[in-house]
């Protein structure tokens, strides 16, 4: 008679915060290990590659001694939009509203910011051309645009129960097409020698930079994270969002309006993503041109998930993912490897963390099977 | 033939099934004979569906054996059922409460879906012919060519039964089959079951409706709290006896009830109609009044509209007719928040489903209703120190046993979860009801609790009564209703069958009304 063992999943009775952090760290390490296997297949030394990525993202010690911070500032430049989209996605996901549309909301925010910068001076000549006036105006414009883009799926969900994953996802493409039409045709710079793109926005509408390309959008992103933490952790509204996310039936029973919260949370979420578009236009490109929709909105989903929807975590994870993007560009130059290695790693990390999440809720146990009378199909 | 003389088709011995924190089946025994309709009777959560899921391969029991006979001449053999596929090979099939049909495929396509040995090129014509023959034989009229989405719920159920017959099932398990049927359809189903039994098939009929058990079934096994209570022939019993077996509790104890002064009417319901979650009428012209200092008990076998009534008078369920008043002010179809503000508290029947957010700390659960007012609210903010003070005060006052206020609510025992809900509801009722007496709607407040917790919950309810609350107590425990209620209204099929005075009625009288008889 043969004794067989089978692996059984058992629900953990309690899951601790430490367990969650431990599993996250282990998952990321496993992802890098998987990446190492892949790199070896491509005949690249994983150790060298990872070191090159790290140096590309944060600089070498020599560069630091010479006062060159180009790598770090580039990493932070990329972290700014990721923090904002990560926050945008986090707040929606907290109440289990699956906003996959941060990309489109970001693009609309960028369009609105560029629109304000390009057309307000002629439409409203009495507004002083000062960054103290224009930057707040552009932020307001981008928040309104992003929020409006998020409002449609929110209303459809709360009144007609339309699946928000579909609507938010599809609206991304509508936003992107609009934006492309704008800079290719309607807002195309007549003095641009035929290159696609709007005219450059005036200096009064540019976010000032303080080191390399690093601009004060960083301050906006950090302020947004702190503000969101206050909302989620200290305000009654944050409590309502938490309640809905944990048990929507209980929330309704406690007198919390689900429809109203869906709309309010999506306005906040879309507004945050809109600011991400504004800082990209006013801080980096200084005009509406190709390159606003490089996927910050989608990477924001990864950021939010890895950060476990926590604003402080979003700042940390956004910086790490930005470092991987910048490091990925670096190995393209120094190692001759495709920059998409970074994207592969990103995907591997998300896979491992999502898979590893199971271990925070379940534990594996070996069970001795009783000998079988006949062959049985395993239970699903 | 005498039923006891018929050959045994299925025997389940000492079945034990545990879920985290729950013993769903505790050494349950079941014998099903071929040619009989066997009722499995019990309240919600008594372990009926769990037991049948073990027979049909959905769960593997933790302990116990199952024996199945392949034919009437054979003795039952030990069966190892690891999946629904194994079960159907042994001739056992189940019709679930929620049908498993593909809406945009035809009846015939659904029937052969997942069938073993289906040829690569389907001969749908012969499938259709075989189906027609089967439906003719058992009186299950459905056109094999129609799409599932074109069928009524009753017709879909016939497709589910045909699916099993097509696979050669000899033992059919129907999980609360009449819950979705009109009375006519139910009667027709009864005839079909009879025909199948005449063929020597065995049918297990899971139900908590006494009428149907008495009219459709030959024998009945009663489960309560995961254990066997009785197994008897329907000819040897009656509805009242079955009701007592099903809902009775071994522990009988009385809580001292003081005489209170019954004041003016606080909660008034006038001819209210409402639908259940499936869109069927659940309340039909229900009228009742609860006065200050009074406990109105609502008796009834579960699923006769009690939950819907509780949800209607707390704003959680819309009405399709009638009006709801609290202290003379009309609140029909207002938001749950309006009801809370009017001083209506609610202890829901589903503790972790509605009453608590299990993953959130106890403190977050305790403030669920009070977080909108000072001192918890400070403008748009939530004052953390005030939350801690508030939570600690309630934990102490209501003797909630918890490691700390930050422990997730789901880690508390059922009794302490219920005490936490009680603490929240009673305290917020006092906060809000400044305009006068409050309403407390308590649904199954002691279900699943041990003796001690039960007693403290009952005591708390009576204290509220003494303070002038109007209490609507929904319970399936007749002892509890008789012990606590001033008056008892009995519900059956969404209607009030009658209202009796708590001190002048008997268990038998209430039991008969629960079974649908006007007294």
Structure write-up:
The complex is a heterodimer of chains A (380) and B (519). Chain A has helices spanning 17-41, 46-58, 61-65, 70-94, 102-123, 131-160, 164-186, 217-234, 236-246, 248-253, 258-285, 296-306, 311-334, 340-361; strands at residues 4-11, 209-211, 214-215, 362-369. Chain A is mainly α and 380 residues long. In chain A, the strands form 2 sheets. A two-stranded antiparallel sheet of chain A has the order 1-4. In chain B, 32% of the residues lie in helices and 25% in strands. Chain B has helices at 48-55, 84-89, 107-112, 124-138, 153-166, 183-198, 210-216, 239-247, 306-312, 336-341, 351-355, 362-366, 384-397, 414-432, 451-466, 478-484, 507-514; strands at 8-19, 22-33, 37-41, 63-68, 77-78, 92-95, 171-175, 202-207, 219-224, 227-233, 265-275, 281-291, 294-299, 321-326, 329-330, 344-347, 377-378, 381-382, 439-443, 470-474, 487-492, 495-501. Chain B has a 6-stranded mixed β-sheet, with helices on both faces. In chain B, a hairpin with a 2-residue loop joins strand 9 (219-224) and strand 10. The radius of gyration of chain B is 25 Å and the shape is elongated. The chains are: A mainly alpha (380), B alpha/beta (519).
Give the overall silhouette of chain B: elongated
Radius of gyration from the alpha-carbon trace of chain A, in angstroms: 24 Å
| Strand proportion of chain B | 25-35%
Major sheet description of chain B: 6 strands, mixed
The two chains with the largest interface, and their residue counts, are: A-B, 30 and 41 residues
The main sheet of chain A comes to: 2 strands, antiparallel
Summed up:
Chain A is mostly helical and 380 residues long. Chain A has 14 helices and 4 strands.
Keywords:
heterodimer, A: 380 residues, mainly alpha, two-stranded antiparallel sheet, two-stranded antiparallel ribbon, 14 helices, 4 strands, 69% helix, 6% strand, disordered C terminus, B: 519 residues, alpha/beta, Rossmann fold, 2 domains, six-stranded mixed beta sheet, 17 helices
């Amino acid at each position: 008679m043969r004794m067989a063992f089978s692996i059984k999943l058992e629900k953990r009775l309690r899951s601790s915060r430490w367990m969650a952090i431990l599993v996250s760290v282990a998952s990321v390490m496993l992802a890098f290990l998987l990446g190492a296997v892949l790199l070896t297949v491509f005949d690249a030394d994983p150790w060298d590659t990872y070191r090159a990525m790290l140096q590309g993202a944060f600089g070498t010690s020599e560069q630091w001694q010479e006062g060159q911070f180009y790598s770090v500032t580039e990493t932070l430049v990329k972290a700014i939009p990721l923090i904002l989209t990560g926050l945008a996605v986090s707040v929606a996901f907290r109440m289990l509203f699956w906003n996959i549309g941060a990309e489109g909301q970001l693009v609309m925010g960028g369009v609105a910011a560029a629109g304000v910068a390009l057309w307000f001076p002629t439409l409203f000549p009495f507004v002083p051309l000062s960054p103290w006036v224009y930057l707040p105006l552009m932020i307001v414009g981008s928040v309104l645009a992003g929020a409006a883009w998020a409002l449609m799926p929110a209303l459809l969900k709360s009144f007609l129960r339309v699946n928000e994953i579909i609507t938010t996802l599809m609206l991304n493409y509508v936003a992107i097409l609009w934006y492309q039409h704008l800079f290719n045709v309607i807002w195309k710079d007549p003095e641009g020698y035929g290159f696609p793109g709007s005219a450059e926005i005036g200096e009064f509408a540019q976010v000032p930079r303080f080191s390399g390309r690093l601009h004060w959008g960083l301050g906006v992103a950090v302020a947004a994270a702190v503000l969101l933490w206050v909302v989620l952790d200290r305000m009654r509204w944050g409590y309502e969002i938490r309640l809905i996310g944990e048990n929507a039936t209980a929330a309704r029973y406690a007198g919390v309006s689900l429809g109203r919260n869906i709309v309010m949370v999506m306005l906040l979420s879309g507004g945050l993503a809109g600011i991400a578009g504004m800082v990209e236009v006013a801080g980096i490109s200084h005009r509406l041109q190709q390159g606003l929709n490089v996927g910050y909105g989608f990477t924001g989903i990864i950021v939010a998930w890895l950060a476990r929807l926590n604003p402080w975590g979003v700042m940390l994870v956004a910086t790490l993912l930005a470092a991987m993007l910048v490091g990925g560009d670096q190995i393209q130059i120094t190692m001759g490897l495709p920059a998409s290695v970074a994207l592969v790693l990103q995907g591997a990390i998300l896979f491992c963390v999502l898979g590893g999440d199971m271990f925070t809720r379940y534990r594996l146990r070996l069970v001795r099977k009783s000998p079988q009378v006949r062959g049985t199909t395993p239970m699903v | 033939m005498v039923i006891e003389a018929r050959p045994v088709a299925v025997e389940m011995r000492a079945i034990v099934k545990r879920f985290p924190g729950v013993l769903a089946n505790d050494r349950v025994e079941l014998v099903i004979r071929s040619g009989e309709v066997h009722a499995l009777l019990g309240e919600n959560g008594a372990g009926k569906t769990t037991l049948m899921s073990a027979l049909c391969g959905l769960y593997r029991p933790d302990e116990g054996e199952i024996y199945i006979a392949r034919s009437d001449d054979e003795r039952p053999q030990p069966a190892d059922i690891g999946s629904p596929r194994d079960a159907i090979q042994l001739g056992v099939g189940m019709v679930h409460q929620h049908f498993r049909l593909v809406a945009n495929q035809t009846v015939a396509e659904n029937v052969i879906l997942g069938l073993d040995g289906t040829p690569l090129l389907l001969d749908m014509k012969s499938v259709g012919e075989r189906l027609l023959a089967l439906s003719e034989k058992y009186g299950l009229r459905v056109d094999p060519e129609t799409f599932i989405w074109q069928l009524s719920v009753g017709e879909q159920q016939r497709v589910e039964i045909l699916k099993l017959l097509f696979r050669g099932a000899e033992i059919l398990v129907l999980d609360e089959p009449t819950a979705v049927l009109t009375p006519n359809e139910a009667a027709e189903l009864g005839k079909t079951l009879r025909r199948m039994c005449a063929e020597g098939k065995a049918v297990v009929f899971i139900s908590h409706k006494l009428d149907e058990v008495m009219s459709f079934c030959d024998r009945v096994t009663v489960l309560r709290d995961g254990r066997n209570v009785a197994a008897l022939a329907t000819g040897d019993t009656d509805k009242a006896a079955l009701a007592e077996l099903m809902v009775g509790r071994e522990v009988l104890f009385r809580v001292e009830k003081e005489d209170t002064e019954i004041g003016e009417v606080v909660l008034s319901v006038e001819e209210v109609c409402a639908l259940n979650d499936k869109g069927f009428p659940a309340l039909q012209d229900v009228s009742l009044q609860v006065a200050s200092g009074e406990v109105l008990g609502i008796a009834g076998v579960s699923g006769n509209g009690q939950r819907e009534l509780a949800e209607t008078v707390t704003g959680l369920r819309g009405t399709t007719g009638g009006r709801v008043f609290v202290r003379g002010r009309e609140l029909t179809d207002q938001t749950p928040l309006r009801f809370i503000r009017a001083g209506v508290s609610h202890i829901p029947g589903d503790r972790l489903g509605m009453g608590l957010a299990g993953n959130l700390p106890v403190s977050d659960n305790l403030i669920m209703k009070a977080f909108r007012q000072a001192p918890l609210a400070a403008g748009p903010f939530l004052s953390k120190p005030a939350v801690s003070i508030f939570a600690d005060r309630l934990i102490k006052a209501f003797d909630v046993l918890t490691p700390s206020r930050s422990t997730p609510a789901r880690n508390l025992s059922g009794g302490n979860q219920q005490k936490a809900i009680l603490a929240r509801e009673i305290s917020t009722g006092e906060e809000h009801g400044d305009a006068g007496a409050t309403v407390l709607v308590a649904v199954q407040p002691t279900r699943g609790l041990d003796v001690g917790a039960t007693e403290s919950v009952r005591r708390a309810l009576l204290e509220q009564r003494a303070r002038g609350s109007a209490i609507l107590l929904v319970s399936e425990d007749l002892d509890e209703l008789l012990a606590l209620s001033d008056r008892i209204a009995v519900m059956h099929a969404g209607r009030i069958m009658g209202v009796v005075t708590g001190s002048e009625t008997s268990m038998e009288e209430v039991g008969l009304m629960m079974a649908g008889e006007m007294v």
